TrEMBL record:
The keyword Glycosyltransferase does not apply. The chain crosses the membrane at residues 100-119, 156-179, 186-208, 214-240, 261-283, 289-308. Keywords: Membrane, Transmembrane, Transmembrane helix. InterPro entries: SpoIIM-like. It holds the Pfam family SpoIIM. It comes from Mariniflexile fucanivorans. This is Putative membrane protein SpoIIM required for sporulation. It comes from the Bacteria.
Length: 320
């Protein structure tokens, strides 16, 4: 769609919304939220197709004013958590799905490097995972319990410790983006190589199928680390490629957007921590259909929320 057609199609609702905001008119909270969702949708569209236009600057300004108005509305504040995950974040994240794709590709390259290196050099896995972990795992394999490490400790203690550690890793992956995205790429590479070496280590011992136990929680855990990496790249790239903004303004916006992506991952890390603390320890005793069912559902949950749902929601609001 040409920019002129885009403006003509949406100008009326923008002016109505702008007039209500500037005149301090009382707006029904539900209507305000609806206007805001449409506005952020238009803003995301303009960011994609008209990145250097005055239309984008205007929508940015209007969205900022609308945000302030919405978050001082009491009724909306009660529902803002639900609204964030149900509407605001998916619509917002639609414009960053390409960054997520690049992040995923970087991670998969690292996984392949880790796998190939371990296949060709038995000592590589010790370099990556450490002698202590490798020796302990070999002992467990010889005892016939390769996943014994996941059975140790209390369920609640494991759940809390694992969840906190995973969130810490996600924050590091995001924060390292401040080093012009290179820091985040390093975190993605180190985790990807570790994963590739780990999986190939089990393959070399002929028990690759046992890793299904790990994927019970690892499906969400690894996926969300990639998403946190996406947040880091959003922040780092905002400084490298400021577009029409000054670098300071672009970086501030990128940091806020990246932080919003990290916040969206917290519920998923809690789910992964719960699975690892309470379910993974029973993975070897599970019927295979239940085990792979959990893995499939976990993968679908991530793909749906971060890929399918934002596209579907964006298309829904465009058609209205």
């Amino acid at each position: 769609m040409r920019e002129a057609s885009f403006v003509k199609q949406n100008k009326e609702k923008w002016l109505v919304f702008e007039s209500a905001l500037h005149n301090n008119a009382k707006i029904n909270p539900d209507d305000l939220a609806s206007y805001y969702i449409h506005l952020t949708n238009d803003l995301a569209y303009a960011q994609t197709y008209y990145p250097e236009s005055k239309t984008l600057l205007y929508l940015n300004s209007l969205a900022s004013e609308a945000h302030q108005k919405i978050y001082i509305t009491k009724r909306e504040s009660k529902n803002k958590i639900i609204s964030f995950w149900k509407y605001e974040f998916p619509l917002f994240f639609r414009s960053y799905q390409k960054t997520l794709l690049y992040t995923f590709l970087i991670f998969m390259v690292a996984v392949c490097i880790g796998a190939i290196s371990t296949l060709n050099d038995d000592s590589f896995v010790r370099l990556i995972l450490g002698d202590g972990y490798v020796n302990m795992t070999i002992e467990n394999i010889e005892k016939g319990e390769p996943m014994a490490v996941y059975k140790s400790g209390s369920s609640i203690g494991s759940f809390l410790g694992i969840t906190i550690n995973n969130i810490r890793v996600a924050i590091i992956a995001f924060a390292f983006g401040v080093f012009f995205s290179v820091g985040t790429i390093y975190i993605l590479f180190s985790n990807g190589i570790m994963l590739g070496a780990f999986i190939t280590f089990f393959y070399n011992y002929g028990i690759l199928e046992k890793t299904s136990t790990i994927w019970l929680h690892g499906t969400i855990e690894i996926s969300v680390i990639v998403i946190a990496g996406c947040a880091g790249l959003v922040m780092g790239n905002s400084f490298l490629f400021p577009k029409t903004y000054s670098r300071r303004v672009a970086f501030t916006k990128g940091a806020k957007d990246g932080l919003k992506i990290v916040v969206s991952t917290i519920p998923f890390f809690i789910i992964a921590g719960f699975i690892e603390g309470f379910i993974t320890r029973y993975g070897e005793q599970m019927p295979w259909i239940l085990s792979y069912g959990i893995i499939a559902c976990s993968l679908f949950l991530i793909v749906f929320y971060y890929v399918i749902y934002p596209i579907k929601l964006n298309n829904t609001f465009q058609s209205e």
